[in-house]
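Title: Prediction job returns without error message
Component: structure pipeline
Severity: low
Priority: P3
Assignee: unassigned

Description:
Job completed but the reporter wants confirmation the result is attached to the right record. Sequence as submitted:
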Amino acid sequence: MNDLKSFIANIPDFPKPGILFRDITPLLRSHFSATIDALDMLFTDTQWREFDVVAGIESRGFILAAALAARRGKGFVPIRKQGKLPPPVVEVAYSLEYGSDVLEMQHGNGNVLLVDDVIATGGTMQAACMLCEKAGYQIGGLSVLIDLCFIPPLQWQQQTLRSVISYE
């Protein structure tokens, strides 16, 4: 995992002054398959059989979740910013480290694995969990590529967030 970490670029003062952005673009460009392998291995084959769909949080979470869904023969569900999906949708407003936003998704059911690229304060992932439940899904797993370790390990009901890379 440390090998993957070395391909993440640190971009200071992006998107706002004082924020250190962890850019996964170089990692995906040079080690996409290894990145998806690492995310896949966060769960056992038995756990993967329990997931019905993989949901990706806009926008970099789409890339990772869609690849995992395709690899494992699961459906992909997008979680998008407000106004990007056709109705009917459910929505959840939330706060994040530098503002607020609204997430939306379409109704569904089944056991969902939630995937995002980075967790900082946990606001987006918690909102996505609430949204999935509001839309009719059960949370079967939580995963991110990068945990910035700003908060204690995030938990939603009995699920603990799993990550490939940590910045402690």
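Comment from assignee: result matches the submitted record. Residues 25-40 form the longest helix (16 residues).
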